[in-house]
Design brief:
The protein has a single domain, classed as Alpha-Beta Plaits (2-Layer Sandwich), CATH 3.30.70. It is about 10% helix and about 25% strand. It has 2 helices and 5 strands, in the order βαβββαβ. It has a 3-stranded antiparallel β-sheet with strand order 4-1-5, with no helix packed on it.
Length: about 80
């Protein structure tokens, strides 16, 4: 199952990753991207926007479309 790490300091909220994700895994929230299901977060800060934990996206295809479309390199896929 892929784990998605988002560096919120790099994220500019452009939404390119949201638009390119074929599995609708990502969403914009308060001007930053996050995994659409924050309850899936593995870290202790579940349901909060942070860059300290790795969020598990059960529907993620591991296609890295989000990574390739991000102009600020704010997204990283840690496992596929």
């Amino acid at each position: 199952m892929p784990k998605i790490q988002i560096d919120l300091e790099l994220c500019d909220g452009c939404g390119a990753c949201v638009a390119f994700c074929p599995a609708f895994v990502l969403e914009l929230h308060d001007g930053k991207v996050r995994v659409a299901n924050p309850e899936a977060c593995l870290g202790i800060r579940a349901k909060q926007l942070c860059s300290e934990c790795h969020e598990t996206a059960e529907t993620c295809l591991g296609c890295v479309a989000c990574v390739k479309s991000c102009p600020t390199a704010a997204i990283e896929i840690l496992e596929t």
